[in-house]
User: Which sequence fits this backbone?
C-alpha cells in the first residue's frame, strides 16, 4: 500500500546529513549553549554521545543477517536511542511496516519517533508521514489533526496535500479543492505541485 508520496527524497537528505555530519552538529549545539555551567563536561560528553549514536545507527541499518535479524536490530536501536538517530530508526521501521502493509505498526513507530526529533524539519517530516499513515487507515480526522502540526514553510504544500486528501475522504469536495489550491500556491511546492494540480483537475472535471 502506497501511503508515502514525494517526501521520500527529503527523508534521505535529512538522514544522510545527520549521519555524515554528527560531529559538526554536536559542535554547533555546544557553541549554542556556551557559557553554561559544566561546559567542559557537556562538550566532551555530548560530542561523544552524538558520534556514538551516529555509528550505532549506521551499524543498525547495515544490511547483514536475515531480514528478521535486521528488523530485530533496528527495533532494538529505535527503542533504546532517545535522539535524532532513534527518530530516523523509527522512520525506517515505519517504512518497513508500510511495505508489509502493517499500517498500525507504522503509526506506532512514527508516534514513538516524534518526541525524539530535535529539529523542526525532522518533526515536520515525521508528522507528514504519520498523517499519511493515519489516512491510509481511513482515519481522516487524525490525519487532519497531525497535518495541523506541520509548521515549516517548506512543508506547507505537503500539509495542504494531506489536508485535501483527508477532506476528500470525508466527502468535503469544496474543502479539498481549497486545500489543493492553497498547496499549489504555497512557497516551495516543488514536485508536489503537479500532484495537487492533477487532483484538482480531476475534481473540477
Assistant:
Amino acid at each position: 500500500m502506497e501511503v508515502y508520496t514525494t517526501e521520500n527524497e527529503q527523508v534521505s537528505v535529512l538522514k544522510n546529513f545527520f549521519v555524515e555530519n554528527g560531529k559538526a552538529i554536536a559542535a554547533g549545539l555546544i557553541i549554542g549553549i556556551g557559557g553554561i555551567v559544566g561546559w567542559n563536561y557537556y562538550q566532551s560528553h555530548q560530542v561523544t554521545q552524538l558520534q556514538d549514536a551516529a555509528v550505532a545507527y549506521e551499524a543498525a541499518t547495515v544490511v547483514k543477517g536475515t531480514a528478521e535479524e535486521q528488523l530485530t536490530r533496528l527495533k532494538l536501536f529505535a527503542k533504546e536511542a532517545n535522539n535524532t538517530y532513534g527518530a530516523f530508526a523509527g522512520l525506517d521501521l515505519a517504512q518497513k511496516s508500510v511495505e508489509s502493509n502493517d499500517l498500525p505498526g507504522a503509526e506506532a513507530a512514527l508516534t514513538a519517533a516524534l518526541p525524539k526529533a530535535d529539529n523542526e524539519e525532522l518533526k515536520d517530516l515525521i508528522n507528514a508521514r504519520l498523517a499519511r499513515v493515519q489516512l491510509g487507515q481511513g482515519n481522516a480526522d487524525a490525519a487532519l489533526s497531525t497535518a495541523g502540526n506541520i509548521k515549516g514553510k517548506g512543508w506547507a504544500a505537503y500539509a495542504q496535500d494531506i489536508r485535501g486528501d483527508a477532506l476528500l475522504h470525508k466527502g468535503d469536495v469544496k474543502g479539498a479543492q481549497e486545500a489543493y489550491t492553497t498547496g499549489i500556491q504555497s512557497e516551495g511546492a516543488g514536485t508536489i505541485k503537479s500532484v495537487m494540480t492533477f487532483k484538482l483537475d480531476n475534481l473540477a472535471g
User: Anything to note?
Assistant: Residues 39-61 form the longest helix (23 residues). The chain has eleven helices and no strands. The radius of gyration is 19 Å. Residues 1-6, 17-46 have pLDDT under 50 and may be disordered.
